[in-house]
Amino acid sequence: MRLDKFLKVSRIIKRRTVANDACRDMHVSVNGKTEKPAYDLKIGDEIEITFGERVFRCRVREMPEHIGKAEAGSLYEVLE
Fold first, then answer.
1. What is the pTM of this model?
2. Hey, which CATH number is domain 3-78, 3.90.226.10, 3.30.390.30, 3.10.290.10, 3.40.190.10?
């Protein structure tokens, strides 16, 4: 699954266009390396997103194409 789509489906970032912009502006890295929105994400990858002064880190657990709002938090494990 594409990185930008995962960020939207998991509801880490609300809109896919915002996820695209965050990736292009180098605010998102996967396994310690800055990646483009089209990066092919895999289960077990660690995502780090910088929101101003704060940093959000998580590990990918599942990658379904569609999921309900209540289950979105189960797609990733928060590391920090």
1. 0.90
2. 3.10.290.10
